[in-house]
Inverse folding.
């Protein structure tokens, strides 16, 4: 009887441990998509301060390699550029005051518009995905779940263009209006961690007379430093057009 009692008691104790463990390891419920969007909008307001602090504290070299290939995939030309950010050298430079813009200053023709050369190759940047009402209103956003990215919880959001006519004031907006994919937002700080996107349809420039892009894929990877600053670690993209 003692053995039987012990076995029953052990079974009950084991079941209690399993229940307690499942309750402890259960993930918290996902926030609403409206809450996620509002947090992202609030976090985006400090983006310039984040970038400025990162450039002031960290030395880094940024390399950019652009390859031009023909329809058979053969390499025709390669361009390489490298920029270096050196906080020590920047601190030693004298500050030159810039004149304040005049209230009635006229914006040069074409300012604020993406140049035609971008049709040949233009990568999206983190700044193109800063959360603001104008950008968010162009997409249908669906919260898909939660994933761990670089040891931190991130919220996974799928997006696609809304149906109907969307505003197109420049070439960049033509691309954005036809972009769909997935983004990862850091759950604690609502910062962009990753982005994978593609074009949903062809993009023409000036009715296709200047150029057209029929395929475009882009990925962005960002990381967080130990002192809480975010930076873009890598951006890669593939474009097919003329």
């Amino acid at each position: 009887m003692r053995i039987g009692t012990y076995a029953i008691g052990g079974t009950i104790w084991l079941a209690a441990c399993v229940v307690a463990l499942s309750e402890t390891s259960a993930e918290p419920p996902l926030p609403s998509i409206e809450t996620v969007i509002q947090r992202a909008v609030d976090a985006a307001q400090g983006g310039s301060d984040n970038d400025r602090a990162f450039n002031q504290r960290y030395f880094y070299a940024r390399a950019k390699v652009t390859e031009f290939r023909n329809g058979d995939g053969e390499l025709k030309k390669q361009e390489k550029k490298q920029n270096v950010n050196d906080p020590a050298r920047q601190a030693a430079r004298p500050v030159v005051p810039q004149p304040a813009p005049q209230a009635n200053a006229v914006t040069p023709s074409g300012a604020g518009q993406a140049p035609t050369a971008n049709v040949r190759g233009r990568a999206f940047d983190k700044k193109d995905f800063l959360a603001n009402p104008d950008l968010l209103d162009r997409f249908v956003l669906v919260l898909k779940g939660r994933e761990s990215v670089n040891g931190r919880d991130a919220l996974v959001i799928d997006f696609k263009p809304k149906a109907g006519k969307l505003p197109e004031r420049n070439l960049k907006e033509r691309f954005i209006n036809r972009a769909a994919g997935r983004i990862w937002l850091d759950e604690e700080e609502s910062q962009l961690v990753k982005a994978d996107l593609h074009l949903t349809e062809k993009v023409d420039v000036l009715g296709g007379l200047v150029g057209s892009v029929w395929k475009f894929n882009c990925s962005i990877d960002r990381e967080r430093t130990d002192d809480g600053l975010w930076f873009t670690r890598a951006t890669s993209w593939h474009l097919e057009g003329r």
